[in-house]
Amino acid sequence: MSMEQNIAQILITEEQIKNRIRELGEVLTAEYADKDPVIVGVLKGVVVFYADMIREIRVPCQLDFMWLSSYAGTNSTGSLLVRQDLKTDIRGRHVLILEDIFDTGTSLDFTVRHLQEKGPASIKICTLLDKPERRRPGITLQADYVGFTIPNAFVVGYGLDYDEKYRNLPYVGILKPEVYEK
Ligand code: 5GP
Ligand code: MG
Q1: Is the pLDDT of residue 57 over 90?
Q2: Does residue 72 come out as left (phi exceeding 0), alpha (psi in the -120 to 50 range) or beta?
Q3: So what's the pLDDT on residue 177?
Q4: Is residue 89 flagged as an active site residue?
Q5: Is residue 127 in contact with ligand 1, taking CB distance under 6 Å?
Q6: 3-state SS class at 168
Q7: Does residue 107's CB lie within 6 angstroms of at least one atom of ligand 1?
Q8: How far is Cα 128 from Cα 100, in angstroms, rounded to an integer?
Q9: How confident is the model at residue 2 (pLDDT cuts 50, 70, 90)?
């Protein structure tokens, strides 16, 4: 059974993603010239976007990663923990967080608070996808750079999974509801 046949609709094509990343790259290259940023990725949904995005940010930089997990097995509880922390000392450094999707905001809010405690010079957020309709009340955090604002639908591909599958689809698609309602 192919992955493609479980996709109801391609929301953002490979080409649209590529073009948008190039545009964001120009903006981020200007923003971070001479700032020697630390570019932080939150695993693992971000890996595909991360790999493409960093190659369009044409400044000297360092790469590092964090891995979060939730306390319980279920999501959206708001209780997260750091499963793997940064290896880089970010005190006094300019930090750029790359994210796959800004949904309820729970994980980005947690990530920013966690990194803030380390005393960086600045923290900015660049998210490929933003689903503002889903934001949890009380989250005032905003992304500094957004690839695409999308409607409230569950999407997969380009790093995003359903049950750890579909991350390797080259586009962002909407999963057929019958796939996860079974
Ligand atoms: P948050 O709700 O904390 O903003 O997002 C937490 C995580 O939920 C994201 O990093 C992502 O892994 C996952 N997530 C949120 N919305 C979607 C979606 O539409 N599709 C997929 N595959 N994952 C999502
Ligand atoms: Mg996920």
Answers
A1: yes
A2: beta
A3: 87
A4: no
A5: no
A6: coil
A7: yes
A8: 5
A9: confident
Q: Per-residue pLDDT tens for 11-36?
A: 999 999 999 999 999 999 999 999 99
Q: Tokens representing 85? A: 């922390």
**Any ligand 1 atom below 6 A from CB of 160:** yes
Long-range contact list for 137-140, CB < 8 A, 24+ apart? 139/104, 139/105, 139/106, 139/109
User: Residue for token digits 């405690």?
Assistant: 117
**In the block, residue with structure tokens 């020697």:** 36
Q: For ligand 1, atom 16, which residue shows the shortest CA distance?
A: 103
Please calculate the CA angle 151-153-159 and round it to the nearest 5 degrees.
105
Handedness of CA 118, 123, 129, 131 (dihedral sign): positive
Return the DSSP state at 171.
S
- Reported as a single tens digit per residue, the pLDDT across 92-131 is 999 999 999 999 999 999 999 999 999 999 999 999 999 9
